[in-house]
Specification:
By secondary structure, the protein is α/β, with parallel strands linked by helices. The chain is built from 23 helices and twelve strands.
């Protein structure tokens, strides 16, 4: 039929060929659309679990981000602006995949999708940075603006700006799978940190998850690899053996039990703690789930290399580099470091050098503004600062089983102690504040009731495990301040079941608040330093006046405290006993949770007490005048004790 005939028939209404052609096109389109939909319907939109929360700007927040992150990104905030931002918990919920898919599809049910525009933008050869999510976000933002225009009665403007060639969400859900393949090619998946395989995490881990920062090796492992440079006085390579426990001690049944004893160096605590943390049952690879974040920096080993170096900048170099690294991580901005903690295996004074005096002792790690937000764990804390907390010195005993601990405790209970008291130390003739000379004189005058073990720096006699023999034969062990308030001998005496006698509350009572009872009279005796210095206090007479029943009760309490002051072997796990590591982690988590609640409620962290009153608040939970005020009236200088 000619085109002229077709036109004539159309004009007369007698030919329906044109309308039939439209039916064929429509049917073909429906068949194509149905086939395409059935082909891709088995694939679900939102496989990756991404969702969008529209804000009042042009950005969209992923489900793995918190509103806090967006506030920081949009305002360029820093740690000084934290009080202007509301903190939200950044906890990613584990949801069934099908439930996740329904949520995403439901989100888009109320608006059309310009799929043509998404495909065109994403498939462009010039596209190197745009992803399905970013393009979709821009389109959805425009759709939200159009929806608002409708609500405001601007129907004409909305009709003019509405795009064509739209399909409904059901088709968009299917098509998104095809687009997702392109997205995966353009955007590589982010590498997960701490890719450590762990057993399924029990529900008891809720609120106890810990994330371990994957810091550069130079801050930990490289230090151990170069162990000969760690000390100018001691070969630390042997001490670094057995996960930081040192070499195994030979069996001496008259001195200690058959297993679990090592030649442990007190300055390897950060290595021991790190290896214990690797076995912590509530580790997570997702920092957004973590209640706290552990930084495995060997701060003590680092600064120990340069403590006697006149070039102060060498002592600070790695510490400064670490803080910069931490502050540049996304995990830092969640709480501006207030959920971070690290172990520095030396006394706090080794990390509190005055920044104005480069040649002074130690480095300035604890004085950095960022460090003041963190929880710093040291073997001796400062009573006048609120960000460092003391944890026990490591002893030579690192049990692998609960039975090892129970057997040792029973052995210490049964021992017959022939000495009333003993002291291991040395005279300090050039230190006016020290009471070592007075204690030694009184011990020697007591003859058979006291034994004195003189410590020689060259032979290291007091650091040998044989020192335990002295403590095991004594009812009381004298623990005056040494170079600082605390010393390892305190924990050796407790391990031996010997009741410690302190001469300053800064030696234990305001230090190990997570490990010792608040009522110090349950497990120890306090004789004021000035009373000994003046000669008013006669140690032998004071100890003899304690009733026998009270002495037995104190010794039993000391034996019960043994698990609190030991670190179990990192190569194994204790079943029912909580050791010093477990109590430390509990203390850190409680502290971080308190700060987190405060940040939620008030948007800022405010101290409830003057920092110089930290010892009083952390020990007693309240301020006000106290009988120990004279002990802490001023900060001691180096070797002032």
């Amino acid at each position: 039929m000619s085109s002229k005939a077709l036109m004539e028939k159309q004009m007369t209404g007698k030919c329906l060929c044109r309308s039939q052609s439209w039916y064929i096109v429509l049917i073909s389109f429906l068949i194509w659309f149905t086939s395409f939909y059935l082909y891709s319907s088995s694939i679900t939109f939102g496989k990756r679990g991404d969702s969008f929360l529209g804000n009042n700007q042009t950005n969209f927040v992923g489900s793995s981000e918190s509103l806090y992150d967006v506030a920081i990104d949009e305002t360029g905030a820093n740690s000084s602006q934290v009080k202007d931002v509301m903190i939200e918990d950044n906890v990613e919920k584990v949801v069934d995949e099908t439930e996740n898919e329904r949520r995403h599809i439901k989100f888009y049910m109320d608006m059309d999708i310009d799929i043509d525009q998404v495909i065109a933008s994403l498939m462009s050869d010039n596209n190197e940075t745009e992803t399905f999510e970013t393009i979709y976000g821009k389109i959805l933002e425009q759709e939200l603006r159009i929806a608002k225009d409708y609500n405001r009665g601007r129907r004409e403007r909305a009709r003019r700006t509405r795009r064509r060639s739209k399909i409904k969400p059901a088709a968009a859900a299917a098509l998104a799978r095809f687009i997702g393949k392109k997205v995966n090619k353009v955007v590589p998946k982010r590498r997960k940190q701490n890719a450590i395989k762990h057993e399924p995490i029990p529900s008891s881990c809720l609120g106890r998850y810990i994330f371990i920062h994957d810091i550069p090796r130079k801050f930990n492992q490289d230090l151990l690899d170069n162990c000969k440079s760690l000390s100018v006085f001691t070969d630390m390579c042997d001490s670094a053996l057995n996960l930081g426990l040192g070499s195994s001690l030979p069996s001496k049944e008259n001195l200690y039990s058959k297993t679990g004893w090592f030649s442990t160096n007190e300055f390897l605590l950060e290595v021991i703690f790190h290896n214990r943390m690797k076995q912590y049952k509530c580790l997570t690879n997702d920092s957004s789930l973590a209640a706290a974040i552990y930084v495995p920096y060997y701060a003590g080993l680092d600064v120990g290399r340069y403590l006697w170096d006149r070039l102060g900048f060498r002592r600070d170099h790695d510490a400064v580099e670490l803080i910069k690294w931490l502050a540049g991580r996304p995990e830092w901005t969640k709480m501006w470091g207030r959920n971070h903690f690290l172990v520095a295996g030396r006394i706090n004074w080794d990390f509190r050098r005055d920044p104005k005096n480069v040649s002074d002792w130690g480095n300035g790690l604890l004085n950095f503004p960022e460090s003041k937000n963190m929880t710093m764990l040291v073997i001796e804390s400062s009573p006048w600062n609120n960000n460092d907390f003391a944890i026990p010195y490591p002893t030579n005993f690192h049990p692998s089983k609960d039975d090892n601990v129970f057997q040792w405790q029973n052995r210490m209970r049964r021992l017959k102690r022939r000495l009333l008291f003993s002291f291991a130390g040395a005279r300090r003739p050039n230190r006016d504040k020290s009471i070592h000379n007075e204690i030694i004189d009184q011990c020697l005058a007591s003859r058979k009731k006291c034994r004195f073990l003189e410590c020689d720096d060259q032979s290291q006699s007091c650091s040998k495990p044989e020192n335990l023999m002295l403590f095991q034969s004594s009812v009381f062990c004298l623990q005056p301040p040494g170079d600082s308030y605390t010393k390892r001998s305190i924990f050796d005496s407790i391990l031996a079941g010997c009741i410690p006698v302190f001469f300053h509350p800064g030696s234990a009572y305001v230090q190990y608040i997570w490990h010792f009872p608040k009522d110090y009279t349950q497990y120890s005796v306090l004789i004021p330093t000035n009373a000994v210095k003046s000669g008013d206090a006669k140690i032998e007479k004071l100890l003899q006046r304690i009733p026998r029943e009270k002495t037995i009760a104190m010794r039993d309490k000391v034996v019960k405290l043994i698990p609190n002051v030991i670190y179990a072997n990192p190569a194994s796990k204790l079943e029912t006993i909580e050791d010093a590591f477990d109590l430390t982690v509990k203390g850190v988590l409680d502290r971080v949770e308190t700060i987190r609640k405060q940040m939620k409620d008030t948007k800022e962290v405010t101290s409830e007490f003057p920092e110089q009153e930290s010892w009083k608040y952390f020990t007693f939970g309240k301020l006000g005048s106290h009988e120990w005020d004279p002990f802490f009236s001023r900060k001691p200088g180096k070797h002032d004790t």
